[in-house]
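Box 3.1 — From sequence to structure: Polar amino acid transport system permease protein
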Amino acid sequence: MSFVRSVRPSNLVILAALPFIVYLFASSSDYQRSLRAILGIEPGSGALVPGFLLLAVAFSAGFAVLVLSRGKAARPRLTLAAGLAGVLATAAILAGDLVHPFIASVVANGVDPFKSTLVVKGVTPRQLTEAADLMVRGVEAWLWPAYAVLLLAGLGLLFSGSRAPVPAESRALRAGRWLLGLVNGAGLAFVFLFAHLAFASGLATTIRAAVAAYLLAAVLGLLWVGLLKLRYARQTLVLFAAMTVMLAAVSAWFLLQPRDAYVLAGTLEGKVGIVTGTPSGLISAVRFGQYEGGPENETPVRTFVTPDLAIEAIGKKEDVSGALLPAAAVPAGWPRLWQVEALNDRDRAGGITFAVIAIVVGLLTFGGFLHRRHPLSVGSEFVVDTIRGIPMLVIVLYVGLPLSGALKDATAGVFDPPNLMRGIVAMALAYSAYLAEIFRSGINAIPAGQIEAAGSLGLNRWQTARLVILPQAFRIVIPPLGNELIAILKDTSLLSILSIRDITQRMREFQSASFLPFAPYNSAAILYILLTLAAASLISLIEKKYDVKHR
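Predicted structure (token representation):
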């Protein structure tokens, strides 16, 4: 009965319904197929589970040693047990070949299957070629022994340092903690956040997207709050005013560059040739007849790399009868339908960009002058209020499609993040505004006397925030932070609009292929319920640990 009372009431309902859920999935082939598809279980992925578990146990145990040995509440027995578990798991990794299938799957799914020579073409699930498999085995031949040496060295330094007369001042103890933290922390991040999990890729994508977006949103939220707390200073306004003038001057320099002359030559009986590099505004004007004497109907166009190719196509009497060419490239005797001068796209985009930044900085400076606030504080308030007024789906679409496309064009394809990264950034940006308000309310709940006392002790603003304000504010805002974690876990379903293959996207794909009316949707709903209840239970444990209700 004590166990039943310790379970949250909502979880108790799920536990009562769990036998029915298990029976449903065990007895129905439709639910089994839908669950496999939604979870992302690939054929033959069962062979990868032992390797994943061994790595997870080894890295988790090594990191647990670091956590359990810290502070006044150190637990020597649990620390020793965790260290022993890490050593045994590492020995199993070295003794057998259980980890290799998992690592090979990670490498095969981490490269482009169309361009890379490491994977066998046209094989699903992906498989490494014999040469690539030998290369991976060669890396593993020195990687796992190196990890074993680092683990044993970290454990040795940690335990030897703990026996020092003053353990807190032991260099060996600090070195062991750093070594265990870096090695096992990197391993945990690789296994749980980056490695492809072929036995649950859909579930892993959902959880990773939620966790990454939540952490990034928390960082951005703290940033907005930090900017909001900046103090007003006259020198700051002068600096921002000078910055506004400088940005306006740079914008003017771009916009006042010499224009290039273009001529629409030939006839409009066929398509109009457009040369690569022609200003986009002129292309739109030609297509839609937005010039003097232009046709009312849309004019078809065809793109050419150079003016010579366009002229050659017109001379061969292909489907091209005219061309928008630089004035110097127009052959003599050709009819000229329209002549105009225009700024090239690069200078125009640079001028507009700097002009927009100058206007924004100027408005922030003016707002700071009127209300005697730091311009960045005004900007932080504007960002938070604006983001909270835009629907989540609009933010995901805006960041994932036009904004990412514009950044890709501006960097000539150098910056082209994958869809999952775009979705994580969009979710983090959207939720950062809500988390900022939560952090702000928690910080404002701290009595002013504590801040004054910290100042009287000689602590600067950063030390006061790190040692006095944030620890207490964190205890206050744990419940609302937990609610945002649950909300962001559910809202990851919106990322399916970017073709990210999470639980929702895989559900839609399976339903479209199977035409089953209820099994895919019920399976996805049950998975989301289990995930949110697990998150709620974790939040409840954190609340009990910090005893928020009684502080």
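Summary of the box: The mean pLDDT is 88.
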